[in-house]
Amino acid sequence: MSSFGARRQLDLSGLGGMTRRQVMQLAAVAGGSLLLAGCTTKPTGVAPSNGSSSSDQIIWSNWPLSVDTEDDGTIPSLVEFEERTGIRVEYLAEINSNDEWFAKVQPLMQGGQGIPASVISPTDWMGGRFISLDWAQKLDKSKLANAKNLLPAFQSPAFDPTRDYSLAWQGWLVGIAVNTDVTGKDVRTVQELLTDPALKGKVSLLTELRETTGTLMLANGADPGAFNDDDFQQAIEDIESARQSGQLRRFTGNDYAADLSQGNIGACLAWAGDVVQLAKDNPAIKFFIPDSGGVLMEDVLMVPTGAPDTEAAHKLIDFYYEPEVAAQVAAYVNAVCPVAGAQDAMASIDPELADNPLIFPDAEEMKKMFTYKPMDLDENQARQSAFDKALGL
Amino acid sequence: MTSATTAGRRRWAPYLLLAPMVVWLLAFFLSPLVTLVMGSLQSGSFQEGFVFTFEVANYVHVVTTYWPWFLRSVAFAAIATVCALLIAYPLAYMIVFKSGRWKYLLLVLVVAPLFASFLVRTLAWTTILADQGVVVGALRTVGLLGPDQWLLATPVSVIAGLTYNFLPFMALPIFVSLDRIDRRLIEAAGDLYASGFRAFRRVTLPLSLPGIAAGTLLVFIPAAGDFVNAQLLGSVDTQMIGNVIDSQYLRALDYPTASAISVTLIVLIIGLVALSLRRARTDELF
Known about the structure:
The structure holds two protein chains of two kinds. Chain A is an alpha/beta fold. Chain A has two domains: about 1-170 and about 300-335, D-Maltodextrin-Binding Protein, domain 2, CATH 3.40.190.10; about 170-295 and about 375-390, D-Maltodextrin-Binding Protein, domain 2, CATH 3.40.190.10. Chain A contains 18 helices and ten strands. Chain A has helices at about 1-15, 20-30, 35-40, 75-85, 100-110, 125-130, 180-185, 190-195, 210-220, 230-245, 255-260, 270-280, 310-320, 325-335, 340-350, 350-355, 365, 375-390; strands at about 55-60, 90, 120, 165-180, 205, 250, 265-270, 285-290, 295-300, 370. In chain A, the strands form two sheets. In chain A, strands 4, 5, 6, 7, 8, 9 and 10 form a seven-stranded mixed β-sheet that branches. Chain A has a three-stranded parallel β-sheet with strand order 2-1-3. In chain A, helix 9 packs across helix 10. Chain B has one domain (about 65-280): MetI-like fold (Orthogonal Bundle). Helix content of chain B is about 75%, strand content about 5%. Chain B has helices at about 1-40, 55-95, 105-110, 120-130, 135-140, 155-180, 185-190, 195-225, 230-235, 240-250, 255-280; strands at about 40-45, 50. Chains A and B meet through helix 1, helix 2, helix 5, strand 6 and helix 11 of A and helix 4, helix 9 and helix 10 of B. Chain B: It comes from Ruicaihuangia caeni. Chain B: This is ABC transporter permease.
């Protein structure tokens, strides 16, 4: 199976040069089927070994390819971590979609036996769900000397305002990606995206509730961090009318990468980290934070309740808050880096990336980024149903 | 005495031989199915927990709300099955009767796509049917598609994906039943002054019907429940019932509704299959 996995990644890089989110989408569409399980993720349910060895090996549940990875699959930062601390970390790329991963861990967490991972990195809202279900441990800040490097803009997210439970792993900024070969011009506003007749049938939005409705609410002047029913309803109606007018071709996960580079789509909602990589291969592809603002999502670093090794988990989290290590990861993943000092460290790795505002946004740009409000399960279910209805489900 | 033991052994032997199969069915078929049916009759919410209340209303809700998606899934699957049959029959026929010593190599080629992941094969179609691709270009040249029309994100691309992905499951059973036909029967038809076409219609085709029936089932059933093709090649207007189950289960966390849709789909498919099999048996078509 593994050889097919490798070939698939090659195919995709041929399509668009994108790896991380694309693999995520691929597995997401597999919908829990085992098709992909053998290719991209290691088997789950690996119980942490008992006895003496449990202290030198931990599991980190994360997204595929969300960390610096070499062609042969080795992860240089984790190799260094093991050399320094003697702790071996198994990078378990088992989160292909938050919802799917939740369905998998939910029975284990609810039943009280816990999951084998000591550190988990789902998206912020899923982290928030863990906190509200009492499935997350408070972090011991005395063991996190480098936590002071957390950038101010990341210090009080709505899902964990005092950062008691989490630190940011990577930021995923949502904005408008444009293939100027198709559009012949830049697309900088959501208004243009949804109504410009020149883009008719050449537009896609994301299948993710928060990314899409958040961006649309911002365009209507509402704050996704504190919106009401009317704001949300308006965003849904905007989607409906854009769909009925034939403006929208489809909704995508990160398969927009292929659509965009092939020219099937001219402009779409996209994650900045993906587009940084797409743009490397194709200069016609550009990314804009909408004038009305963009939604900033984040993957988190959290320790679940009942984690096999809390001590080692803290060491791992602290390690990734060293600027040099964070820069090393950002150089591969190209997501927004939440660690202060990483930009300077990046200058010696890749000066061009160090100047990239999509990886290291300055304070002015951070003002254009908004986070989505935390929702309890009932509200989440209601909003998700309304959104899915607009997706034709 | 000995004969009694032998008789006893003889009586138990079939059951013992069946035991692994029965255990397998209980563990991997019956218990998930029972869990699914039980789950579909629950009420409550994820937050408060689901409880079994024999909530038949779930089914009323599912049928009244989601019948268009059921209808679309059945229609897409039926069209894909017919397309697969129209492609697979001539293909299997050529392989059996015309390919000589290349027969088994060609057969391997039919199966070869199955060695690549289902997702990769489906994603490949986004390249094949791309707006700037060969297929759309050709259709535009001959005027079948306007300059502002495309195939991706339409029912055409979803059905094309379904047809392609399940084609080997149609071709293989037809190959087997054609391959088993005694050639002397066709020769005999010729000796009795049947034309080639008439021999095909009266001898070959009827004898290959079991293959067609098996292939139809093997294509129609998975195609009706598929959601990958609709997700990658489709759009809002082409969502199939599998996509609804995916959304209800994983995104809306409405486990009872998702279970009720699944059970309804199973019943619907069994019903359709039983109906068509009965028709196929009673109709003396040829």
